Amino acid sequence: MADAGPLIEVRSLRKNFPGGANAWGKSKGMVQAVADVSFDIRRGETLALVGESGCGKSTLGRLLLRLIESTAGSISFDGRDLTAMTGETLRRARPDFQLIFQDSGSAFNPRMRISAIVEEPLRIMGKPAAERKDKVLSLLQNVGIDRNMVDRFPHEFSGGQRQRIGIARALVSDPKFVVCDEPVSALDVSIQGQVVNLLMDLQRDFGLTYLFVSHDLRVVRHVSDRVAVMYLGGIVEIGPCKELYERPRHPYTKALLAAMPRKRREEQPKPAFVGGDIPSARNPPSGCRFHTRCPIAQPVCSQERPSLRPDGAAHQVACHFPD
Ligand SMILES: Nc1ncnc2c1ncn2[C@@H]1O[C@H](COP(=O)(O)OP(=O)(O)O)[C@@H](O)[C@H]1O
Ligand SMILES: [Mg+2]
Protein backbone atom coordinates (compact mmCIF):
# COMPACT_ATOMS: atom_id res chain seq x y z
CA MET A 1 0.00 0.00 0.00
CA ALA A 2 2.97 2.28 -0.66
CA ASP A 3 0.92 4.53 -2.91
CA ALA A 4 -2.04 4.83 -0.57
CA GLY A 5 -1.00 8.28 0.69
CA PRO A 6 0.39 9.21 4.10
CA LEU A 7 -0.58 7.12 7.12
CA ILE A 8 -1.24 10.25 9.16
CA GLU A 9 -2.35 13.69 8.02
CA VAL A 10 -2.44 16.45 10.60
CA ARG A 11 -4.15 19.74 9.73
CA SER A 12 -4.23 22.97 11.76
CA LEU A 13 -4.01 21.04 15.02
CA ARG A 14 -4.24 22.93 18.29
CA LYS A 15 -4.18 22.03 21.95
CA ASN A 16 -4.73 24.56 24.71
CA PHE A 17 -4.45 23.62 28.36
CA PRO A 18 -6.13 25.74 31.02
CA GLY A 19 -3.29 27.68 32.65
CA GLY A 20 -4.69 27.38 36.17
CA ALA A 21 -5.31 30.31 38.51
CA ASN A 22 -2.98 32.63 40.39
CA ALA A 23 -2.96 33.05 44.18
CA TRP A 24 -5.98 35.39 44.01
CA GLY A 25 -8.08 33.02 41.96
CA LYS A 26 -7.67 34.95 38.73
CA SER A 27 -7.42 32.66 35.72
CA LYS A 28 -3.99 32.65 34.13
CA GLY A 29 -5.42 31.98 30.69
CA MET A 30 -4.44 29.20 28.31
CA VAL A 31 -1.22 27.37 27.62
CA GLN A 32 -0.93 26.97 23.86
CA ALA A 33 0.92 23.65 23.94
CA VAL A 34 0.31 22.88 20.26
CA ALA A 35 -0.43 25.93 18.13
CA ASP A 36 -1.63 25.26 14.59
CA VAL A 37 0.53 22.45 13.22
CA SER A 38 0.08 20.67 9.88
CA PHE A 39 2.22 17.81 8.59
CA ASP A 40 2.06 14.24 7.27
CA ILE A 41 3.66 11.00 8.45
CA ARG A 42 4.35 8.60 5.59
CA ARG A 43 3.84 4.86 5.76
CA GLY A 44 6.89 3.04 7.11
CA GLU A 45 8.95 6.15 7.88
CA THR A 46 10.42 7.45 11.10
CA LEU A 47 9.57 11.10 11.58
CA ALA A 48 11.58 12.57 14.43
CA LEU A 49 10.22 15.41 16.54
CA VAL A 50 12.86 17.57 18.21
CA GLY A 51 12.94 20.76 20.27
CA GLU A 52 13.62 22.06 23.76
CA SER A 53 11.77 20.75 26.78
CA GLY A 54 8.23 22.14 27.04
CA CYS A 55 7.83 22.96 23.33
CA GLY A 56 4.89 20.55 22.97
CA LYS A 57 6.41 17.31 21.65
CA SER A 58 4.70 14.94 24.09
CA THR A 59 1.41 16.79 23.77
CA LEU A 60 1.53 16.42 19.98
CA GLY A 61 2.37 12.69 20.30
CA ARG A 62 -0.52 12.15 22.69
CA LEU A 63 -2.94 14.00 20.41
CA LEU A 64 -2.02 11.65 17.54
CA LEU A 65 -2.91 8.67 19.77
CA ARG A 66 -6.16 10.24 20.99
CA LEU A 67 -4.87 10.00 24.56
CA ILE A 68 -5.89 13.64 24.91
CA GLU A 69 -8.47 15.61 22.96
CA SER A 70 -7.50 18.35 20.53
CA THR A 71 -8.83 21.89 20.87
CA ALA A 72 -9.12 22.35 17.09
CA GLY A 73 -7.94 20.87 13.81
CA SER A 74 -8.02 17.38 12.35
CA ILE A 75 -6.02 14.16 12.34
CA SER A 76 -6.57 11.56 9.66
CA PHE A 77 -5.28 8.08 10.44
CA ASP A 78 -5.06 5.63 7.54
CA GLY A 79 -7.71 7.61 5.67
CA ARG A 80 -10.13 7.86 8.60
CA ASP A 81 -10.88 10.94 10.68
CA LEU A 82 -9.38 10.10 14.06
CA THR A 83 -10.65 13.24 15.78
CA ALA A 84 -14.25 12.27 14.94
CA MET A 85 -14.07 8.67 16.19
CA THR A 86 -16.04 7.84 19.32
CA GLY A 87 -17.14 4.88 21.42
CA GLU A 88 -16.82 1.45 19.90
CA THR A 89 -15.22 2.73 16.67
CA LEU A 90 -12.42 4.38 18.63
CA ARG A 91 -12.01 1.37 20.92
CA ARG A 92 -11.61 -0.91 17.92
CA ALA A 93 -9.10 1.43 16.26
CA ARG A 94 -6.89 1.81 19.36
CA PRO A 95 -4.74 -1.33 18.84
CA ASP A 96 -3.50 0.29 15.59
CA PHE A 97 -1.63 3.06 17.40
CA GLN A 98 0.53 2.67 20.46
CA LEU A 99 2.90 4.55 22.77
CA ILE A 100 6.38 3.68 23.98
CA PHE A 101 7.46 6.18 26.60
CA GLN A 102 10.53 7.10 28.55
CA ASP A 103 10.22 4.67 31.41
CA SER A 104 7.56 2.21 30.28
CA GLY A 105 8.54 -0.23 33.05
CA SER A 106 7.49 2.17 35.79
CA ALA A 107 3.86 1.74 34.73
CA PHE A 108 3.89 -2.06 35.07
CA ASN A 109 1.85 -3.68 37.82
CA PRO A 110 4.63 -4.97 40.12
CA ARG A 111 2.56 -8.02 41.07
CA MET A 112 2.05 -9.23 37.50
CA ARG A 113 4.42 -11.60 35.73
CA ILE A 114 5.87 -10.06 32.61
CA SER A 115 4.13 -12.60 30.36
CA ALA A 116 0.78 -11.42 31.77
CA ILE A 117 1.83 -7.78 31.38
CA VAL A 118 2.56 -8.26 27.69
CA GLU A 119 -0.55 -10.40 27.21
CA GLU A 120 -2.96 -7.92 28.80
CA PRO A 121 -3.73 -5.84 25.66
CA LEU A 122 -4.64 -9.05 23.77
CA ARG A 123 -6.98 -10.13 26.55
CA ILE A 124 -8.69 -6.76 26.43
CA MET A 125 -9.04 -7.22 22.65
CA GLY A 126 -10.71 -10.61 23.29
CA LYS A 127 -8.12 -12.80 21.52
CA PRO A 128 -8.29 -16.56 22.28
CA ALA A 129 -5.91 -17.87 24.97
CA ALA A 130 -3.77 -20.11 22.75
CA GLU A 131 -3.17 -17.37 20.23
CA ARG A 132 -2.28 -14.97 23.03
CA LYS A 133 0.34 -17.26 24.53
CA ASP A 134 2.15 -17.89 21.23
CA LYS A 135 2.15 -14.23 20.35
CA VAL A 136 3.51 -13.14 23.75
CA LEU A 137 6.33 -15.69 23.72
CA SER A 138 7.42 -14.89 20.19
CA LEU A 139 7.30 -11.14 20.76
CA LEU A 140 9.29 -11.36 24.01
CA GLN A 141 11.85 -13.36 22.08
CA ASN A 142 11.86 -10.67 19.38
CA VAL A 143 12.79 -8.01 21.93
CA GLY A 144 15.51 -10.16 23.46
CA ILE A 145 13.82 -11.56 26.60
CA ASP A 146 14.62 -15.22 27.07
CA ARG A 147 11.83 -17.80 27.26
CA ASN A 148 12.87 -18.94 30.72
CA MET A 149 12.42 -15.40 32.09
CA VAL A 150 8.80 -14.80 31.13
CA ASP A 151 7.37 -15.87 34.50
CA ARG A 152 9.42 -13.35 36.43
CA PHE A 153 8.20 -10.08 37.93
CA PRO A 154 9.17 -6.59 36.70
CA HIS A 155 11.60 -5.89 39.58
CA GLU A 156 13.72 -8.87 38.54
CA PHE A 157 14.76 -7.05 35.35
CA SER A 158 17.14 -4.19 34.62
CA GLY A 159 15.90 -0.84 33.30
CA GLY A 160 16.94 -1.77 29.77
CA GLN A 161 15.14 -5.13 29.96
CA ARG A 162 12.00 -3.47 31.34
CA GLN A 163 12.06 -1.05 28.41
CA ARG A 164 12.28 -4.05 26.05
CA ILE A 165 9.25 -5.57 27.80
CA GLY A 166 7.42 -2.24 27.43
CA ILE A 167 8.21 -2.31 23.71
CA ALA A 168 6.83 -5.87 23.46
CA ARG A 169 3.64 -4.79 25.21
CA ALA A 170 3.22 -1.84 22.83
CA LEU A 171 3.69 -4.06 19.77
CA VAL A 172 1.62 -7.08 20.85
CA SER A 173 -1.56 -5.67 19.27
CA ASP A 174 0.16 -5.38 15.84
CA PRO A 175 -0.02 -1.58 15.63
CA LYS A 176 0.60 0.33 12.41
CA PHE A 177 1.84 3.46 14.14
CA VAL A 178 3.94 3.90 17.27
CA VAL A 179 4.83 7.10 19.10
CA CYS A 180 8.23 6.60 20.74
CA ASP A 181 8.40 9.43 23.31
CA GLU A 182 12.02 9.75 24.51
CA PRO A 183 12.23 5.93 24.44
CA VAL A 184 15.87 5.70 25.57
CA SER A 185 16.30 8.90 27.59
CA ALA A 186 15.94 7.14 30.94
CA LEU A 187 18.46 4.42 30.05
CA ASP A 188 22.17 4.17 30.66
CA VAL A 189 24.09 5.60 27.71
CA SER A 190 25.80 2.21 27.34
CA ILE A 191 22.51 0.46 26.48
CA GLN A 192 20.71 3.26 24.65
CA GLY A 193 22.21 2.13 21.35
CA GLN A 194 20.97 -1.44 21.75
CA VAL A 195 17.42 -0.34 22.42
CA VAL A 196 17.50 2.15 19.51
CA ASN A 197 18.74 -0.60 17.19
CA LEU A 198 16.03 -2.93 18.49
CA LEU A 199 13.38 -0.32 17.66
CA MET A 200 14.81 0.00 14.13
CA ASP A 201 14.88 -3.79 13.64
CA LEU A 202 11.29 -4.10 14.82
CA GLN A 203 10.23 -1.30 12.49
CA ARG A 204 11.68 -3.16 9.52
CA ASP A 205 10.33 -6.58 10.58
CA PHE A 206 6.80 -5.38 11.37
CA GLY A 207 6.49 -2.55 8.85
CA LEU A 208 5.91 0.07 11.55
CA THR A 209 5.58 3.82 11.20
CA TYR A 210 7.23 5.85 13.98
CA LEU A 211 6.96 9.30 15.43
CA PHE A 212 10.24 9.45 17.34
CA VAL A 213 10.27 12.19 19.98
CA SER A 214 13.70 13.02 21.31
CA HIS A 215 15.88 15.89 22.45
CA ASP A 216 19.00 13.87 21.58
CA LEU A 217 20.03 15.03 18.13
CA ARG A 218 22.62 12.26 17.76
CA VAL A 219 20.02 9.55 18.27
CA VAL A 220 17.64 11.36 15.90
CA ARG A 221 20.25 11.51 13.15
CA HIS A 222 20.74 7.75 13.48
CA VAL A 223 17.07 6.72 13.38
CA SER A 224 15.02 9.15 11.35
CA ASP A 225 14.02 9.53 7.72
CA ARG A 226 12.66 13.03 8.28
CA VAL A 227 12.89 15.51 11.13
CA ALA A 228 10.37 18.07 12.38
CA VAL A 229 11.69 20.87 14.61
CA MET A 230 9.26 22.32 17.16
CA TYR A 231 9.48 25.65 18.93
CA LEU A 232 6.84 26.88 21.38
CA GLY A 233 4.02 24.73 20.03
CA GLY A 234 4.72 25.23 16.31
CA ILE A 235 6.73 23.34 13.70
CA VAL A 236 9.42 25.71 12.40
CA GLU A 237 11.15 23.33 9.98
CA ILE A 238 10.56 19.87 8.56
CA GLY A 239 12.62 17.97 6.03
CA PRO A 240 14.70 14.91 5.15
CA CYS A 241 17.11 14.03 7.96
CA LYS A 242 20.37 14.30 6.01
CA GLU A 243 19.39 17.57 4.37
CA LEU A 244 18.24 19.14 7.61
CA TYR A 245 21.47 18.25 9.42
CA GLU A 246 23.69 19.32 6.54
CA ARG A 247 21.83 22.44 5.52
CA PRO A 248 19.43 23.67 8.19
CA ARG A 249 17.35 26.65 7.07
CA HIS A 250 15.69 27.95 10.22
CA PRO A 251 17.83 29.94 12.68
CA TYR A 252 16.42 27.86 15.54
CA THR A 253 17.40 24.58 13.85
CA LYS A 254 20.87 26.02 13.27
CA ALA A 255 21.18 26.90 16.94
CA LEU A 256 20.05 23.44 18.04
CA LEU A 257 22.57 21.77 15.74
CA ALA A 258 25.38 24.12 16.80
CA ALA A 259 24.82 23.11 20.41
CA MET A 260 24.95 19.41 19.59
CA PRO A 261 27.71 17.49 21.41
CA ARG A 262 30.53 16.36 19.12
CA LYS A 263 32.20 12.99 18.94
CA ARG A 264 35.78 14.21 19.14
CA ARG A 265 36.94 16.43 21.93
CA GLU A 266 38.71 18.91 19.67
CA GLU A 267 35.39 19.70 17.96
CA GLN A 268 33.60 21.01 21.02
CA PRO A 269 30.16 22.44 20.29
CA LYS A 270 30.17 26.15 19.70
CA PRO A 271 28.56 27.94 22.63
CA ALA A 272 26.38 29.52 19.95
CA PHE A 273 23.03 28.53 21.39
CA VAL A 274 20.55 31.33 21.14
CA GLY A 275 20.51 33.39 24.29
CA GLY A 276 17.64 33.89 26.66
CA ASP A 277 15.02 31.57 28.08
CA ILE A 278 12.19 30.01 26.14
CA PRO A 279 9.23 32.41 26.41
CA SER A 280 6.14 31.05 28.14
CA ALA A 281 3.62 29.09 26.09
CA ARG A 282 1.00 30.89 28.17
CA ASN A 283 1.95 34.24 26.71
CA PRO A 284 3.83 33.51 23.48
CA PRO A 285 5.56 36.32 21.54
CA SER A 286 3.63 37.94 18.70
CA GLY A 287 4.50 37.22 15.08
CA CYS A 288 7.22 34.61 14.76
CA ARG A 289 7.45 33.02 18.18
CA PHE A 290 11.21 32.73 17.85
CA HIS A 291 11.82 36.43 17.15
CA THR A 292 12.73 37.28 20.78
CA ARG A 293 15.76 34.97 20.58
CA CYS A 294 16.53 35.12 16.88
CA PRO A 295 19.89 36.55 15.77
CA ILE A 296 18.51 37.72 12.39
CA ALA A 297 15.09 39.06 13.41
CA GLN A 298 13.70 42.05 11.47
CA PRO A 299 10.67 44.24 12.33
CA VAL A 300 8.29 42.04 10.29
CA CYS A 301 9.17 39.05 12.49
CA SER A 302 7.39 40.48 15.53
CA GLN A 303 4.33 41.32 13.44
CA GLU A 304 3.61 38.38 11.14
CA ARG A 305 3.76 34.73 12.02
CA PRO A 306 5.51 32.95 9.13
CA SER A 307 3.77 29.81 7.92
CA LEU A 308 5.58 26.62 6.85
CA ARG A 309 6.54 27.17 3.22
CA PRO A 310 8.24 24.80 0.78
CA ASP A 311 11.99 25.37 0.46
CA GLY A 312 13.22 22.80 -2.04
CA ALA A 313 11.36 19.65 -2.99
CA ALA A 314 10.89 17.96 0.38
CA HIS A 315 11.79 20.67 2.84
CA GLN A 316 9.54 23.23 4.56
CA VAL A 317 10.54 26.13 6.76
CA ALA A 318 8.59 28.77 8.72
CA CYS A 319 10.84 31.82 8.60
CA HIS A 320 10.64 35.22 6.89
CA PHE A 321 14.36 35.05 6.11
CA PRO A 322 15.30 31.39 5.70
CA ASP A 323 19.01 30.82 5.24
N1 LIG B 1 -1.90 18.32 31.31
C1 LIG B 1 -1.39 19.53 31.18
N2 LIG B 1 -1.97 20.61 31.77
C2 LIG B 1 -1.47 21.86 31.62
N3 LIG B 1 -0.38 22.14 30.89
C3 LIG B 1 0.24 21.11 30.27
C4 LIG B 1 -0.22 19.76 30.38
N4 LIG B 1 0.62 18.96 29.65
C5 LIG B 1 1.56 19.77 29.12
N5 LIG B 1 1.34 21.07 29.48
C6 LIG B 1 2.12 22.24 29.06
O1 LIG B 1 2.20 22.22 27.65
C7 LIG B 1 3.49 22.61 27.20
C8 LIG B 1 4.10 21.50 26.36
O2 LIG B 1 4.40 20.38 27.20
P1 LIG B 1 4.96 19.00 26.62
O3 LIG B 1 4.13 18.58 25.47
O4 LIG B 1 5.08 18.05 27.75
O5 LIG B 1 6.42 19.42 26.09
P2 LIG B 1 7.69 18.50 25.71
O6 LIG B 1 7.25 17.09 25.60
O7 LIG B 1 8.19 19.09 24.43
O8 LIG B 1 8.69 18.71 26.81
C9 LIG B 1 4.28 22.97 28.44
O9 LIG B 1 4.18 24.36 28.65
C10 LIG B 1 3.56 22.20 29.52
O10 LIG B 1 3.73 22.82 30.77
MG1 LIG C 1 7.94 15.36 26.61
What can you tell me about this protein's structure?
This protein is an alpha/beta fold. The chain has one domain (8-104, 179-317): Rossmann fold. The protein has 9 helices and 12 strands. The protein has helices spanning 57-64, 87-93, 114-125, 129-142, 159-171, 189-206, 217-223, 241-246, 251-258; strands at 8-18, 30-41, 46-50, 72-77, 80-81, 97-100, 177-181, 209-213, 226-231, 234-240, 309-310, 316-317. Helix 3 runs parallel beside helix 5, helix 4 crosses helix 5 and helix 5 (159-171) packs parallel to helix 6 (189-206). The longest helix is centred in the middle third of the chain and has 18 residues, at 189-206. The chain is globular, with a radius of gyration of 21 Å. The mean pLDDT is 92. It binds adenosine-5'-diphosphate and magnesium ion (MG). Residues 57-58 line the site of magnesium ion. The site of adenosine-5'-diphosphate (ADP) has 12 residues, from strand 2 and helix 1.
Please give a quick description of this structure.
The chain has 323 residues and is of the alpha/beta class. The chain contains nine helices and twelve strands. It has one domain: P-loop containing nucleotide triphosphate hydrolases (Rossmann fold), CATH 3.40.50.
Overall mean pLDDT score? 92
- Series of secondary-structure elements, N-terminal to C-terminal: EEEHEEHEHHHEHEHEEHHEE
Number of separate structural domains: 1
Considering the protein shown, what is the CATH homologous superfamily? Answer: P-loop containing nucleotide triphosphate hydrolases
As a percent range, the share of helical residues equals 25-40%
The ligands found in this model are: adenosine-5'-diphosphate, magnesium ion
Backbone structural class? alpha/beta
The profile of the biggest β sheet is: 8 strands, mixed
Strand order of the largest sheet: 6-7-8-3-9-10-12-11
Shape: globular
Taking all Cα atoms into account, the compactness measure Rg is 21 Å
Which stretches are low in confidence, meaning pLDDT under 50 for 5 or more residues running? none
Q: Beta-sheet strand percentage?
A: 15-25%
CATH classification class: Alpha Beta
The third-level CATH topology is: Rossmann fold
Ends distance: 37 Å
CATH-derived architecture: 3-Layer(aba) Sandwich
